Known about the structure:
The protein has 236 residues and is an all-alpha fold. The chain has 12 helices and no strands.
Amino acid sequence: MKFNSASKVFRRELHSLFFSPIAYIIMTLFLVTTGWFFFSTFFIAARVDLRDYFSLLPMILTFVIPAMTMRSFSEEYRSGSYEILVTLPITRLEIVIGKYLSSLVMILIMIAPTLIYPFFVGVTGDLDWGPVIGGYVGAVFLASAFCAIGIYASSLTHNQIVAFIIAVAVNFFLVLVDKMLILLPGFLTGFLQYLGADYHFQSIAKGVIDSRDLIYFVSVTYVALHLTYLVQREKR
């Protein structure tokens, strides 16, 4: 893989996202939703922490990230620009990596304004910064995994709505699977708990960086991107 070729796709996609009204609508909805849920409970709970924000973040990203990534391949297929893209001296892997990184950077830009929350909370009392740093580290890894899933879903179809639904369904399963363990046979609980994205995210958000949690998110990201590459290779 040539870094220069992947960076060209990255810049092209990031430029497209920056000038997309949909991206700004999604970012605005994210900030309004997280801000409203966080501050409406913060003053009632009167706790000096961001526990409520980080407990909501996986579910909100379950919907927001697929909305940001659904156009990645689907729009290229629909408009016919994908045929032009693959005739350029760029490999399918470089296309996948460039699109994935541009979406991830856009998501991180969207999350960045919420960094003001801990400083606001810190003014009201003695804030423990360990869980805050852990929460944002976990948010980066969670966003990475959900972006890869969204890119994969978009690579499967010409229809953006179908891509959105597929990605939301997968993310929804990963976020909620560890909440349904009481309904499942005991021999499955360990395996299904490990599949839970929220389980690993909340572990990191406690301020303890466990390599098993990082390996989980890196593995989900790798598997989703590899599947996307295989889909692209089949489209020769």
